Amino acid sequence: MPRPALSRRGFLVTTAGAGAALGLTARPAVAGTRNHPRPFGRHGSPAARRSPKTLYVDPHGRGDFTSVQDAVTAAAGSGWTLVLAPGTYRETVLLDTDRTDATWIGASGDPRDVVIVYGNAAGTPRPDGSGTYGTSGSATTTLRADGFTARHLTFANDWLRADHPGTTGTQAVAVKVQGDRSAFHHCRFLGHQDTLYADSRDLAHFARQYYAHCHVEGDVDFVFGRATAVYEHCRFSTLARTDLDAAPYGFVFAPSTAGANPRGYLVRGGRVDSEAPDGYYKLARPWVPSSDGTARPMLTVRETRLGAGIDARAPYANMRDEHPWQRQRFREYRTTGPGAVVTVPENRPLLTRAEAAAHTREAYLGDWRPYRRMP
């Protein structure tokens, strides 16, 4: 039997050692409590600044700022680096378009130690009475600038359906990424519905994004949007649900690729595992938003292990019947595991070896090569 889902409002507070023993699915939305006598590790300090454009953030007051947003606001222009000391940063953060080529680094090298978290949902009322936040407004962190890089950080949204039974807008985004050349190395993305919004700033902006050795978890459409995004050696974990008693519990991917974009989502060398009963999750469904009726969602999953939580007989589903998944660009290549067993061939669109040659990180990312300098 799957173990029960941990309450996101009563997250475990663990040391890094205990967290490692439990694995990444032991998912605190607050950072560990172990003492860090050198909060910025090997990355310098305010007294020994790595460069004039390096700022240090520490919730305990040992840096330049205690808030990530305050540091972002101070880092006007291009090319700033923020070093984040271990701790829980409970706030919303916006990196706007004029703050290009920014780098955020979790100082300890363990993403469980540095957590940026908040708890808004699409249906959460705005404090000023102007309505609700909506999906985009629910994001804990919004990254609009080009050239962004994050290393060893956790982005989380800890809003829970169980805490708000009357709320209908249950989308709760951990991070919304819109910039071109956005890279994430060894990061975690924690939430339930709409966890990782891999998007672009507008329909004509084919934003390229790269996620390497990351952990993403959720239940409904928890990796979604219209970016050109490569997920390499990433783990996708589907959560148990206590509010439903029948399948499906949800969907891992919901791309909304613009019809003019030849590249959507590429998942390579990863795995999809589950806390839910076998077959209770779909791998993907296409999102054709009302703002772009010509979208042709694209997802290629290759050399990836699909656990038993994925419905092998029917891994894809429609979001709306007028946009059936069969008309979209969904393909697999050399997937393995119990969720990849082909039992109904017409439900498993497979690439040939020749076709797969066009679905590589190099083809998707072009002249941008973030994988060549992986930390």
Describe the fold and architecture.
Helix 2 links the parallel strand 1 (54-57) and strand 2. With 375 residues, the protein is mainly beta. The protein has five helices and 25 strands. It has helices spanning 16-22, 68-74, 134-137, 353-356, 361-365; strands at 54-57, 81-84, 87-90, 93-95, 103-106, 114-118, 141-143, 149-151, 154-157, 175-177, 182-185, 188-190, 196-198, 208-212, 215-218, 220-225, 228-232, 235-238, 250-255, 265-268, 271-274, 281-284, 298-302, 305-306, 329-333. The protein is globular and about 65 Å long.
N-to-C terminal Cα separation, in Å? 37 Å
Low-confidence stretches: 1-27
Oligomer: single chain
Quantity of strands, as a count: 25
What fraction strand?
A: 25-35%
How would a crystallographer describe the biggest sheet? 10 strands, parallel
Structural class: mainly beta
* Topology pattern, helix = H, strand = E: HEHEEEEEHEEEEEEEEEEEEEEEEEEEHH
Radius of gyration: 20 Å
The helix content is under 10%
How many H/I helical runs? 5
Shape: globular
Major sheet: arrangement of strands: 1-2-5-8-11-14-17-20-23-25
| Mean pLDDT figure | 92
List the topology elements.
Blueprint: H1 16-22, E1 54-57, H2 68-74, E2 81-84, E3 87-90, E4 93-95, E5 103-106, E6 114-118, H3 134-137, E7 141-143, E8 149-151, E9 154-157, E10 175-177, E11 182-185, E12 188-190, E13 196-198, E14 208-212, E15 215-218, E16 220-225, E17 228-232, E18 235-238, E19 250-255, E20 265-268, E21 271-274, E22 281-284, E23 298-302, E24 305-306, E25 329-333, H4 353-356, H5 361-365
